[in-house]
Write a structure and sequence with these properties.
Layout: E1 2-12, E2 31-40, E3 43-49, H1 50-54, E4 63-73, E5 75-77, H2 89-96, H3 101-106, H4 111-120, H5 123-139, E6 142-148, H6 155-169, E7 175-183, H7 194-211, E8 217-222, H8 229-242, E9 245-250, H9 258-264, E10 269-272, H10 281-286, E11 290-293, H11 295-300, H12 309-314, E12 319-321, H13 335-346, H14 350-357, H15 359-364, E13 382-385, H16 392-395, E14 402-407, E15 410-414
Parallel strand pairs: 1-4, 5-6, 6-7, 7-8, 8-9, 9-10, 10-11, 11-12
Antiparallel strand pairs: 1-2, 2-3, 4-13, 13-14, 14-15
Helix pairs in contact: 5-6, 6-7, 7-8, 8-9, 13-14
The chain binds zinc ion.
Length: about 425
C-alpha cells in the first residue's frame, strides 16, 4: 500500500545518523513546514515539503490522506513495566500519608506485592490486559515500547510474563520489545541472598529465555537492598555473553555505582540515573551509554529532585525519555507527559525532549537504524498531533493531543 500524508503544518523528521544524538545535536529536529510523507509497504519513501514529496513518482498512485497538525516519528518508549496484574493502590494511599519507598517496602508493598499478584494471575488475563494497555499507548502516539518482566521472579512466572508479551504482540499493532528483568528484586523465598538468586536466574531462567528467543534485552535493578554494582556487572556480562543486550536501572534512589557498573558491562542505556555524579558521565559517554530519564516517576513520587538532564547533555551523553509505565511508581503511558516534565522539571528544550522521545529512544532499543526518524528507508511509524507548532506538544499537559498514529505505514489510531 502506498500512503501519502499531506496537510501537515509541521513535520519533524529527525533525519540524520542512526546513532544517538548528543550535545548540540540533541536539539536538531529536522523541521519542515507544510510537510508531507510518502510511504510504501510500511517504509518511508519520501519526507519533506508537500511540493517536494508530490514530485515523487509513487505519489500519483498513493492513497492520500490530509491531516492538519504536526507530525513526528511515533514515540519510542524505551522503558516500561507494562505487564502487571493490578495497580498498587494501597502503596499509593500510604504515600499520600507520607510513607517512603523504603517504608512501603517494609510494609509488604512495593515490587514484591506486584510479584504476588503476577504469580497468581492467569496467562490469558495477562495477555488481555497487555493488549488493552497497548491500545492506550497507540492512542497517545507511541509506536514502540520496551516491556520488562520482573514481577514474576521465578522461572514459571518470568516465562509466563514473556510468553504473555509474545501473545499480546500478535494481537496489537504496538511493537513490543521484551526485556528480561528477573533481577528486579530478590524474591522472598531467597531470603535476601542476592548472589544465590542471580545464580538461579543465570542457570535456570536465562538459558530457556535465550533458546526460546523470548527477550531482546536483560536488565537489573542496581540499588541498595537489591543488587550491588559488582553483582550487576557480573550478571549483565553473563546475559550479554548469552546473547541479550544489557540495560541497567542505575542510581535511582542513591549514588551507588550503577552507572559505572553498567558502562563496564557495555549497557546500551542506564535508566533513571537521578543520582549519577558528573565525574561518572565521561565514562558513560565513552561507553556509548544512553541516559534514559524517567521524570514521570519523579513526578508521581512527588520528588523534589529530578535527573540532571542539562549535565548529561553538556557532557555529551545522549538523553532518552521514557514513561517507566508501571503499577507502583509511574502509572503513566503517555509520552506527552514525559515531554512536559522534561521541559518543566529538567530544563530540557522542547527540541531536546522530542529527540529524546523518538530517535534517542529508538537508539536505547538498538533500533535507531529502523525507528525514531521520518526519512527514506525508515519504518513508517508516525504520530500526528492536533497542534500548529511542535512546541505545543511539550507545553500543554494532562491531555492527549494525538489525533493519528501510523504504524508500519498503516493508520492504527484515528481520533
Ligand atoms: Zn523501571
Amino acid at each position: 500500500m502506498v500512503l501519502l500524508i499531506i496537510g501537515l503544518k509541521q513535520l519533524l523528521t529527525f533525519k540524520g545518523s542512526a546513532a544517538p544524538r548528543s550535545g548540540g545535536a540533541q536539539g536538531e529536529i529536522g523541521l519542515v513546514r507544510n510537510g508531507a510523507v510518502l510511504t510504501e509497504g510500511g517504509v518511508v519513501r519520501a519526507a519533506g515539503t508537500e511540493r517536494e514529496v508530490m514530485r515523487h513518482p509513487l505519489a500519483k498512485k498513493a492513497r492520500a490522506i490530509k491531516v492538519s497538525g504536526v507530525a513526528i516519528p511515533a514515540f519510542v518508549d524505551s522503558h516500561t513495566h507494562a505487564v502487571f496484574a493490578e495497580p498498587r493502590l494501597r502503596d499509593f494511599a500510604l504515600r499520600t500519608l507520607g510513607a517512603t519507598y523504603a517504608g512501603i517496602k517494609a510494609r509488604g508493598g512495593g515490587i514484591i506485592s506486584s510479584v504476588k499478584a503476577v504469580r497468581r494471575q492467569v496467562p490469558v488475563k495477562m495477555v488481555s490486559q497487555l493488549v488493552e494497555r497497548a491500545g492506550r499507548f497507540l492512542e497517545c502516539g507511541t509506536g514502540t515500547i520496551e516491556v520488562k518482566t520482573g514481577y514474576g521472579l521465578d522461572k514459571k512466572s518470568e516465562l509466563k510474563t514473556l510468553t504473555a508479551v509474545k501473545a499480546a504482540a500478535a494481537r496489537t499493532e504496538l511493537e513490543m520489545l521484551p526485556t528480561l528483568l528477573s533481577a528486579h528484586a530478590v524474591p522472598p523465598e531467597f531470603k535476601g541472598d542476592s548472589k544465590k538468586y542471580l545464580r538461579y536466574v543465570l542457570s535456570q531462567i536465562l538459558p530457556e529465555v535465550v533458546s526460546k528467543r523470548l527477550a531482546v534485552f536483560a536488565d537489573i535493578f542496581c540499588e541498595r537492598g537489591y543488587f550491588t554494582p559488582q553483582e550487576s556487572r557480573f550478571y549483565l556480562n553473563a546475559c550479554r555473553t548469552a546473547g541479550l543486550i544489557p540495560k541497567i536501572h542505575a542510581e535511582q534512589l542513591s549514588n551507588y555505582g550503577g552507572a559505572l557498573a553498567g558502562a563496564g558491562a557495555g549497557v546500551v542505556s542506564a535508566d533513571h540515573v537521578d543520582y549519577v555524579q558528573k565525574k561518572d558521565m565521561p565514562a558513560m559517554r565513552r561507553g556509548g551509554v544512553i541516559a534514559t530519564l524517567l521524570p514521570a516517576s519523579n513526578f508521581f513520587l512527588g520528588l523534589a529532585r529530578y535527573p540532571d538532564a542539562r549535565a548529561f547533555i553538556a557532557e555529551g551523553v545522549p538523553v532518552a525519555l521514557a514513561t517507566d509505565f508501571n503499577p507502583g511508581t509511574s502509572p503513566c503511558w503517555n509520552m506527552q507527559f514525559a515531554l512536559s516534565a522534561a521541559c518543566t522539571h529538567m530544563k530540557m528544550t522542547p527540541e531536546e525532549a522530542l529527540c529524546a522521545a523518538t530517535i534517542n529512544g529508538a537508539c536505547a532499543l538498538r533500533a535507531g537504524n529502523r525507528l525514531g526518524s521520518i526519512e527514506p528507508g525508515k519504518q513508517a511509524d508516525i504520530a500526528v498531533f492536533d497542534v500548529s507548532d511542535y512546541r505545543e506538544l511539550c507545553y500543554y499537559f494532562g491531555a492527549n493531543l494525538n489525533k493519528m498514529t501510523i504504524k508500519r505505514g498503516r493508520v492504527v489510531y484515528n481520533r
